[in-house]
Specification:
Number of helices: 3
Strand content: 25-35%
Helix content: 25-40%
Shape: globular
Number of strands: 4
Low-confidence stretches: 99-104
Order of helices and strands: HEEEHHE
Structural class: alpha+beta
Distance between the termini: 33 Å
Radius of gyration: 13 Å
Largest sheet: 4 strands, mixed
Length: 104
């Protein structure tokens, strides 16, 4: 999916954060009816010390609250057949690092 499509979904759905500044690629999630229920925007790491030129991270996950949508997006991001091959073709050495807070 394009950056514009992903950012439009974030603008519409995400209540805490605006669209991220950078974008390398995005993943969209559709429900059984074909309605978009989530996106994961992948870009350069936000933390400066992780931005080594070889690392990508999910900079903005956003869902409409559908059950397991966020997990499905992260799962898709980690699957080798989705990201690693694409990242390696683009010249990225480390396909993905996911930064997320864990609620206690």
């Amino acid at each position: 999916m394009s950056s514009a499509q992903a950012c439009a979904f974030v603008d519409e759905i995400h209540r805490h954060h605006a669209r991220p500044q950078g974008h390398k690629f995005s993943i969209g999630l559709l429900d059984a009816t074909g309605t978009r229920v989530g996106v994961a925007i992948v870009g350069r790491p936000v933390a400066r010390h992780l931005d080594d030129g070889w690392t990508l991270e999910v900079t903005r996950p956003a869902t409409d609250g559908s059950p397991d949508a966020c997990s499905a997006l992260y799962s898709a991001a980690w699957r080798t057949d989705v990201l690693s091959v694409s990242c390696l073709r683009l010249g990225w050495r480390w396909p993905l690092r996911v930064a997320m807070a864990v609620a206690g």
